[in-house]
Specification:
The radius of gyration is 20 Å and the shape is globular. It folds into two domains: 187 residues, L-asparaginase, N-terminal domain (Rossmann fold); 95 residues, 3-Layer(aba) Sandwich (Rossmann fold), CATH 3.40.50. The longest helix has 15 residues. By secondary structure, the chain is of the alpha/beta class. The strands form three sheets. Strands 2-1-3-4-5-6-9-10 form an eight-stranded mixed sheet, sandwiched between helices. A three-stranded parallel sheet has the order 11-12-13, with helices on both faces. Strands 7-8 form a two-stranded antiparallel ribbon. The chain contains seven helices and 13 strands. Helix 3 runs parallel beside helix 7 and helix 5 runs parallel beside helix 6. The structure holds succinic acid (SIN).
Length: 313
């Protein structure tokens, strides 16, 4: 059931959904983050006259996302979600780092109302632009009475912040929820729900510095054939507070890299193991030298470790 009278606030951050190309048949040679969020909404006739507000929080290609923009975005989301007349917030974003931003927002805000991220695989100028339908669907989710938590709406499906991941660099159907599956499908503006909405405790924004350079330094290293410990040593020497290792299979690490990571951990650098397989989770066993990030992808495990370092330095 939808609350048509309630206000939805749409926050723009850029991405391909706001991308522009001189040539309508160009699906790759465009510039992301060009079209303002108000214009994006005007391109969806079905939203004309709907109680919507818009605000441009950033205008960037999401590969260039910064911690400072994350902090600003979380603060604007928190502000609007606290307004009684607002049923939910929509964030337009680039697809490339959408899942990291989603996990950051879920962990910091864990909102009781829907915070809906959306994006597009084709620029606003494309013949087959997917942004307008995704935006329309995202607004439907932001109005849905039972919806809550941070979700991503793309290509007719609702994905939870923990599970969503970009699995293809080009296809319009580029997002997936792995083993968990989507939370819902959106069909003609109506939701068909399959499983519960994201929940959890909010860490709060109080300990998240507005100055991005004050955040803990957490880097990702990958285990692979011929891996060496030198990269870990160099990162520790340059001041890393935490390291996530994208492991082979079920959290295994090349012996050279593992030795360097164990040494780093003994010296106080926090380490988390994730899997580079992009699906499933690292199933830990008693006596593991390095803790597991469970089902978090390396990029989400990095967010998790940064937030953990911020709340318990
Ligand atoms: C971006 O992530 O900002 C560019 C790519 C995209 O949105 O698909």
């Amino acid at each position: 059931m939808q609350n048509q009278a309630a206000t939805v606030v749409v926050l723009g951050t850029g991405g391909t959904i706001a991308g522009r190309s001189a040539n309508a048949s160009d699906n790759v040679g465009y510039t992301a983050g060009q079209v303002g969020v108000t214009q994006l909404l005007q391109a969806v006739p079905a939203l004309a006259g709907a109680p919507l507000e818009s605000e441009q929080v950033a205008q960037l290609d999401s590969k260039d996302m910064t911690h400072a923009v994350w902090r600003d975005l979380a603060a604007r989301c928190a502000h609007h979600l606290a307004r009684a007349e607002v049923s939910g917030v929509v964030v337009t974003h680039g697809t490339d780092t959408l899942e990291e931003t989603a996990w950051f927002l879920q962990r910091v805000l864990a909102p009781a109302k829907p915070l809906v991220m959306t994006a597009a695989m084709r620029p606003a100028t494309a013949l087959q632009a997917d942004g307008p339908q995704n935006l329309l669907d995202a607004v439907a989710v932001a109005r849905h009475a039972g919806a809550r938590g941070v979700v991503a709406v793309l290509d007719g499906r609702v994905h939870g912040a923990r599970d969503v991941r970009k699995v293809h660099p080009y296809r319009i159907d580029a997002f997936d929820s792995g083993d968990a599956g989507a939370i819902a499908a959106i069909e003609e503006g109506r939701l068909r729900c399959f499983r519960p909405w994201p929940e959890g405790a909010a860490l709060g924004l109080e300990r998240v510095p507005a100055d991005g350079s004050a955040w803990p330094v957490v880097e990702i290293v990958t285990s692979h054939a011929g891996a060496r410990g030198a990269a870990v040593q160099a990162l520790c020497d340059s001041g890393a507070h935490g390291l996530v290792v994208a492991c082979t299979g079920n959290g295994t690490v090349h012996r050279e890299l593992e030795a360097a990571l164990v040494t780093a951990q003994e010296r106080g650098v926090r380490v988390l193991r994730s899997t580079r397989t992009r699906a499933g989770r690292v199933i830990g066993v008693a006596g593991d030298a390095l803790p597991s990030a469970e089902d978090l992808t390396p990029e989400k495990a990095r967010v998790e470790l940064m937030l953990s370092l911020l709340s318990r330095p």
